[in-house]
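Pipeline run #58 for the internal structure catalog. This entry was flagged by the ingest filter as a single-chain record with no existing model, so it goes straight to prediction. Upstream metadata was stripped on purpose; only the residue string is passed forward. Reviewer on rotation: M.T. Logging verbosity set to normal.
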Amino acid sequence: MIIFLNGPDVYHRQQKQKEIVEQYKKKHSNLALQKFDLETKADWLKFKDFATAQSLFDNLKMAVVTGSFSELEDEKEFKKILQSQLENKNFYLVISTNDKVKKDFSFLLNKPVISQEFKLLTGAAWKKFIEAEVKKRDIPISKIQNLISSSEGDCVGLINEIEKLSLSDNFQSQVSSLKFKADFFGAIQQIARGDLKAKLSNLEILLENDDAAKVFNLLAYTVQPEEQIRMADYDAAVKSGKLEYEEVLLDFML
């Protein structure tokens, strides 16, 4: 079974990808899940092995494939693998890319493939998206008025700016609204600068009471300036679907 997500709206495409993965993880507790970036040679080789290998233990497999088809060493082999999996009910293949669909891959737009296109938001759809996002964070739309027209369609860029405003304007209120009474600031400082044991124990406390995205954002707001670039790289990796917030938090500590 193949699910094909295509188009330049990276934000909504990745949101849909995450939604699909979570849905299947909940439905199938024995799901063997792996992610692959086609622009990395090592991942291409791993994907070929994963897609074609037969296992006695993992009855259900899911591969999440991102990146550009044009970076592949052998597009014909990739096409052959995809076509061989069209009717495979034990292998879920999620493909997320901004590539324009070439003639050789036009079958990805037809049944039995489940395909969805993500065009850039414009006009009324863009305005509706902005209004919904600022409402979630309780930010006056006037604060981002200058970005509305200049960044039309750039959902990822706009979300980043909105989140920065949300953190700077509402940092104290976000912390006080957390569901636990632990020393939040102390826990964040321990994650940023404590020894490994302290980092792990404090992260466990935070994640037991709130979601990893909020912990990451508040940590990113707290770290030293020289670490901001690293946090920005982590954020980009999460938003591109390559990593999850739990993974980057653990990697940051190690």
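catalog note: The chain has a mean pLDDT of 82.
catalog note: The first strand starts at residue 2 and ends at 6.
status: ready for reviewer M.T.
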